[in-house]
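Notebook entry, structure prediction.
Reason for the run: the old model in the group folder had no record of what sequence produced it. Starting over properly, with the input documented here first.
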Amino acid sequence: MCRPDPKRSTPRAKKPAAIAHVYRLKAQPGPPLITGQAVGEKIGAGCVRVITDLAKLQKVKQGEVLVAPNTDPDWEPVMRRVAAIVTDQGGRTAHAAIVSREFGIPCIVGTGNATHVLTTGETITVCCAEGSEGRVYSGKLPFGLEEVAATEIPKTRTNIMLIVGDPSKAFDFAAIPNGGVGLARMEFIINNHIGIHPMALVKLSQLKDAKAAKDIRDRIGNEDPSQFFVRRLSEGIGHIAAAFYPNPVIVRLSDFKTNEYAGLLGGAEFEPKEENPMLGFRGASRYYDPRYTDGFALECAALLRVRKDFGLVNLKVMVPFCRTIEEGKKVLDVMKQHGLWQGESGLEIYAMCEIPANVIIADEFLKIFDGYSIGSNDLTQLPLGLDRDSGTVGRLFDERNEAVRRLIVQVIRAAHTDHKPIGICGQAPSDFPEFAEWLVGQGIDSISLNPDTAITTRLSVAAAEKRKPVVAA
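New structure, fully documented this time:
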């Protein structure tokens, strides 16, 4: 892996212009079998495969429609090969929703009863192209695509960045007009390209679970366990950074919850059982804690390898779920110990703005971090007092809530006052073009979008910039 030479022409540099596809049903459908929340704007069709028992997951075949109560990171290899996903539980920020966006798969979540109504073997059409309500229709309905070429899109004052997690798609996504990657999820790469808990690699010789230890050794071969992690993670991150070079690529440090970490090979021994992992041992709190410091050292080594050995200094780092100023300082100190010095060779370290404290004392956080990226998923659940993974209150989750909007306005103004960059990398701008337009009016510096909506949302942003004056800070 090395930094691309901007003077050298390569086949990758001659990609055709990106095209956005707008999906439309071509037939008048009958009444839907079930409905839920639409994720993305695509349509897919195929035979149903209902999975309620994890042991039967491998029965899912290429091109089928996966129907399940919910999904978790263990399911991702199977999710790649399906035509669509339908779940009983979850909202637009649930695992199934986030991963289906990464893979470009139509998905409907929160149906309540899909696993009871739909039957393995029947043919259905999953339609997310009729607004925020996703609908499942009987049979395979004809649908078509309308194309919007990227060349037709005007430039925008607001920097339009992408959300990218899958290194294998990075060069394809780089063809979409963009200002870089505003969010690259490290945990996506860990789960799909490594699959092993980092602490299980560090302490492989001490694992109590003999089967897990054997499986890990079989997977890594003769390679040093820690170097296996660093190599695989740095290659995945480096692939994304190289694809978008010289534009910035902001990589978020691992943000698994404890239940998700426990699902990695060998992970159960290292993770506490929490009643609510969403609000537990996650994000910044892990990086300086003795229970994970050795694992975090491997993350830092991978990032350092990308910047120093690969020469991809367009890589920036983002710290998630940082609860206090003291915690932020601790994380920065630990990163220094592992060679990641803020400011060295232009290294910028951002923080996710996703906790009310990040807004209330933004001026203090922005003294130690180089900028903010608003995580609207968490910044919605905490002010509203709801767990975004909860199916029982998922209907109340809405980033457009006035309380959330006021927090966003407040933190944009705070960042501008401190002359620090501020963007957003949550789901809302990808799901609601009108929300992206509203952000433009507030003067946000950048908006990170899922690749499947980047072109069409950019059109909305360009239109909004023409007709809306920016709110003064």
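Summary: The mean pLDDT is 90.
The old model has been moved to the deprecated folder.
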